[in-house]
Amino acid sequence: MTAVKERRPVAVVTGGAKGIGAAICDALIADGYWVAAVDIATTAKQDHLEGYVADISDLAALIATLEKIEAEHGLVRVLVNNAGILSSKTLFELTPETFDRTVAINLRPVIFASQHVARRLIAEDRPGSIVNVASSAGRFGSIWPDYGTSKAGVIGATLSLAKALADKQIRVNAVAPGQVVTDMNAEMSPEQRAINSARIGMKRPADPSEIADVVAFLAGDRASFVTGSVVDANGGRF
């Protein structure tokens, strides 16, 4: 008799094409998930992963993409809201348009992707997990007000979503990385990277896999009684 392959639970990672997002995809695959990487860029193909191209600042396109994933692969059990942009506009350079663009990518999709996935889980009476990638900038502030504000909003959204969904057995947590070796980090000036590194107790930036491992823990059953938590994965910012 031929053994029937068990279907992997479905996880969605926004911003999954590279950097922290790609590392999160790898960690979730290693933990037994089938992963949909939603990104404005094309995602490299691999086993148990499929890329979906979408601009998540367009909420209609984001929801349509989630519906397509569900139609093709089944109920989304884990959502990782990871996608984000780094604005490098100081207070007096900032415009309303720049601010709105940052919030449209870093914060709004966290609420509305979570709303969609939670509705489907509740309708099927299934538990689930949502993990949001925030930032130390949301904890300590940033010289770029729109970025820091958007990431503080992600932390606030995490706490509010956790309260709204706890009795539905849908857990919501966040990870707040510090400096991480990614393309986004490379956009900073060498001087700013040096300032950030000096604030880290461990005196080095994180590898994306170190953040991904925290996300995978929060997403999975090992964190079955953890919700409304924000884990600082920043190497010790004192």
TrEMBL record:
It comes from the Bacteria. One of its GO terms (molecular function) is oxidoreductase activity, acting on the CH-OH group of donors, NAD or NADP as acceptor. The keyword Oxidoreductase applies. Pfam families: adh_short. The keyword Membrane does not apply. Coiled coil: none annotated. InterPro entries: NAD(P)-bd_dom_sf, SDR_fam. Keywords: Oxidoreductase. Belongs to the short-chain dehydrogenases/reductases (SDR) family. This is 3-oxoacyl-[acyl-carrier protein] reductase. It comes from Neorhizobium alkalisoli.
